[in-house]
Batch of 2 targets.
Target 1
Amino acid sequence: MSLFHPVNLVCPACEAPVVMMAVGSVNADRRPDLREDILSDRFQDIECEACKESFRLQPQFNYLDVGRGQWIAAMQSAKMQDHLEVEDEAETLFSASYGAGAPSAAQEVGNGLKVRVTFGWPAVREKLLIQEHGLDDVIIEMMKMHILRSVESVPLAQGIELRFVDVDEDNDGYIFSWLETASEDAIENLSVPAELYKAILDNPEGWDALRTRLENGYFVDMQKFYMGEGRPAG
Ligand SMILES: [Zn+2]
């Protein structure tokens, strides 16, 4: 089931009250249209009836796609600084729904699910896109770290992030975008050759230590290395 509930908002342009149905959980097996909306950057877009300004409600929902093996706690971008707490909450919820705390039939479903925590729309969209193209999200994060070390000027700053946004079929590569997390505005795109993905894939020993750190928790995102001490190795 996909669950919606009414939320009272205020139009950021004219301050008129706006009521919208916000989603609390998305079941992509039953509502593939909602998955398409996330991929098309239009899910939870709202238009103010008074002034026609359009804006977007930040994500705060659980995403389930049994067919594609994904369970995501998709949270607002502003919660990223609390990622350890959010991971703990997601773990509790997942455990009760599909993990050790769930009935055996649900646990069987859970065994096929890759669990992730994301912050902001670009991050949850990225996880769906990675699955769509049969890629490994850990390697995508490793590519970002390689890009950070390789380019001369990096627009990385608070609220700016690097996201995989599309495949580049013409150039056999992957398109990454520097974008502003909250507004989703793209600052700069770059096409990265597919050889980089393959080089990392073919050298698991060389990347093993980094993989362990990235996979330590459900928040598989290189940005966690720039925020505090992180989770102790376990
Ligand atoms: Zn308005």
Target 2
Amino acid sequence: MKLYDVAVVGASGMVGGELINLLESRRFPVNKFYPFNSGRKPAAVVFKGKTYSCRKPSFAALKKADIVFFVSTDEVSGKFAPRLAAAGVWCVDDSSRFRLNPAVPLVIPEVNRNELKVSKKLIAGPNCTLTGAAVALFGVHKKFKIKELRLATYQAVSGAGKGAMLQLEAELRARLKTGRVLEVEGGAFPHPIAFNLFPQVGGFDKNGHSVEENKVEAELKKIWNSPAIKISSTAVRVPILRGHSLSVWVKTERPWTLAALKNVLAKTKGLKFFANPYKYPVPLKQGNKTFEVYAGRLRKARTSANEFQLWIVSDNLYKGAALNSVQIAERIIQI
Ligand SMILES: NC(=O)c1ccc[n+]([C@@H]2O[C@H](COP(=O)([O-])OP(=O)(O)OC[C@H]3O[C@@H](n4cnc5c(N)ncnc54)[C@H](OP(=O)(O)O)[C@@H]3O)[C@@H](O)[C@H]2O)c1
């Protein structure tokens, strides 16, 4: 079996740590392994029982790899990925830097793996929030053509990185110990997050939409190659560590019966569907180190014809990031 030299930029981060574990547990054929971090503080990672020190990335060091996973920042991806791809190195980028670039495939393998081509060495993975909807609703979209999609998202703090998780834990400890709200200056969020929630994920644009809401809309249209779909969302940060949940209202062009919808959802690739209307996935279980997207509580919406409601849960760190990147790499080594 051919082995590949693999680099992970952002190895000391939340997604980087999961990605390294997945490369090992899914037996990705790694020859040499090169982990990188910001270089601002010493960090070591363990891969296949061996401890590696992380280094600051340079073009020369990254070019030694066959595949580079970018799980750090938009700036770092922007600085290195295009040049590396031009030099023939596969770059799988989890940042948002290139997701909407028309020359860069934005890929969820269960949905659009045919976008992966030898000639396109730079590949983007999508935002962790829309991944659940993109996977869960793709079969329905193909069969009944979704024309309007409304979403309310309930997003875990790990979506904002390791620092955000540590902040929630510190706030919880402080509140339980002292009874007071811990205000974190320069923290990950605009408000305290312990025992709280807020309808803001990222900054706002001039029309009042948040960065996250705009990403969900634009990236979903690109992944489904369906620019005409109308999408509205409200992205909410909630005080849980891991697993994003979505409440969706889906209006289709073609009519359906609930039985037909159930049938499609049961067969959708990458989705585990709870057909029992009284059962549903929760982030603590189905959003925690899970490979699939989960959905339940399918029902007809009362607001209009051809509209249904569904509850979707997925692991933002696995399917929303690290796992999706590894799955992309598993495909590209086959083409
Ligand atoms: N968290 C999610 O659910 C999720 C989902 C989808 C996509 N993503 C994307 O994945 C990426 C990583 O997110 P995360 O949640 O893992 O963040 P994180 O926990 O904050 O980790 C960031 C990582 O990037 C490294 N880094 C920062 N600046 C760097 C630089 N100049 N050069 C090299 N490495 C640098 C950090 O190294 P130090 O430890 O040295 O600071 C750390 O390893 C982001 O682009 C994010 O948008 C995240």
